[in-house]
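Continuing the series of single-chain predictions for the mutant panel. This is the parent chain; the variants come on the following pages.
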Amino acid sequence: MVRARVGCNFRVYGDPVGADPLYDGKETWLVFPQQTSQGWFEIDSLLQKKGKSIAAMIGESTVVNRREQLTMVLELEFWDELGAKRKLPGRPHYFDFDRWDWIPRLAEVQQS
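Parent structure:
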């Protein structure tokens, strides 16, 4: 059995928003061998915490702001029964309201 902690670090227009203890790194997931786990949360409830709605976000979506409307930096930490730990680097994503899908950022932003 492996234990995991999942931190989604959601933001609406750059403003942090909490989801649920399972996705905010406050509760531990239990993952068993050969198990496929998929969590579930509502995007609408995240947006409502910041006074937004899905319809509003779709209406506000532009080529310029779509990568900043709803973002997530996914952080995963795993440990096993023997105490071995592994924490993966944070992986940024944005939610594309046109495609209705989370899009991972595949390259680092270069600082000049």
